[in-house]
């Protein structure tokens, strides 16, 4: 192989990530692991795309509604499905495996939220940046899945849906 061919090959190859995954990693700091959630779906998709891996949203029925529940990774007989809440592990050989998340995010789907919290549940909502300008209010709708991937709910005092990642039930809210 000539120097020019070698250089062309190196420039066209998928990026090499030298850090190795270890079996005793924690999901939050390992550079080869990503916990898949509705909030980071596109970030994880981009991470895999940049590694040259084919991904596609995985859709299922959830309480009668067709919603994204994860990512299909790879194609043909080598594909795997990572559901929200699973950890995707990228191995040195470029393969991927899925495992239950060691540190769950606590994110709920719209159906899970509705089963736990009825309309009228007292909440603290953050319409903008989470942690800034909290709104102490109550829910005024059931949660639903916006654009097939982001669970949201309406609250009193705000005109649009707020992502469930930005809504905290009041400590005394009774969960079913």
Could you explain the architecture of this structure?
The chain is of the alpha+beta class and 176 residues long. 15% of the residues lie in helices and 31% in strands. It has a three-stranded antiparallel sheet, with no helix packed on it.
Number of strands: 12
Report the sheet with the most strands, covering strand number, pairing sense and barrel closure.
3 strands, antiparallel
Radius of gyration using CA atoms only:
20 Å
Q: What is the global morphology? A: elongated
Indicate the percent of residues in helices: 10-25%
Name the descriptors:
176 residues, alpha+beta, 3-stranded antiparallel sheet, 12 strands
Kindly summarize this structure in a few lines:
The protein has three helices and twelve strands; from the N terminus they run αβαβββββαββββββ.
